[in-house]
Design brief:
By secondary structure, the chain is an alpha+beta fold. 19% of the residues lie in helices and 37% in strands. It has four helices and 14 strands.
């Protein structure tokens, strides 16, 4: 079924049934999107990478309004997200932004292991919109967070940034 011109909708599904609903919708030939992120989870005996939904209990689907009844009759699908009694269309640019976020997502704990960084260390941003800026690393709430000093305004600007987008800057000692 050609669905690329149909609008996206958000479905509200039973908790922990997102992957099942995604599979059922895909089997029906519908274009479906389940934003997943990879996280480290700790069990008593080990650490393991797991994929989990970015939005708990939500799956996105492209569908014609005529198919809505058939879709909500799928086990574990509760309803379409509605406003004013009508299913809300999710704009394509929002779906694309979610996809980009999931593609770029890296959990802080994984990133901590990529470089030997320490509190107060000078670092440079190597890619993205802030490329070239330098700042100092500071711990906040048990997670490392980059603090960038913007000289022109004379204030510290705290930003969250992927470890893959920074590099240590080694300062010369006199």
């Amino acid at each position: 079924m050609k669905t690329d011109k149909l609008p996206w909708y958000a479905l509200y599904v039973h908790s922990r049934a997102e992957k099942k609903v995604y599979a059922q919708l895909t089997d029906m030939g519908l274009e479906t999107y389940l934003p997943l992120i990879t996280k480290m989870r700790k069990w008593s005996d080990r650490m393991k990478k797991v994929e989990e939904p970015l939005f708990k209990s939500y799956v996105f689907v492209r569908a014609d309004e005529k198919m809505h009844y058939e879709i909500v009759s799928i086990p574990n699908v509760m309803k379409f997200v509605r406003f004013g009694g009508k299913a809300v269309v999710v704009p394509e640019n929002q779906i694309n932004a979610i996809k980009k976020y999931c593609d770029d997502f890296e959990e802080d704990e994984q990133q901590l292991q990529e470089h030997e960084l320490h509190e107060g260390q000078l670092v440079r941003i190597t890619s993205g919109q802030m490329m070239g800026l330098m700042g100092r690393l500071a711990p906040i709430n048990n997670k490392k967070r980059l603090i960038v000093f913007i000289e022109s305004v004379g204030h510290y600007l705290p930003i969250n940034i992927s470890r893959t987008k920074i590099e240590p800057v080694y300062e010369k000692t006199i």
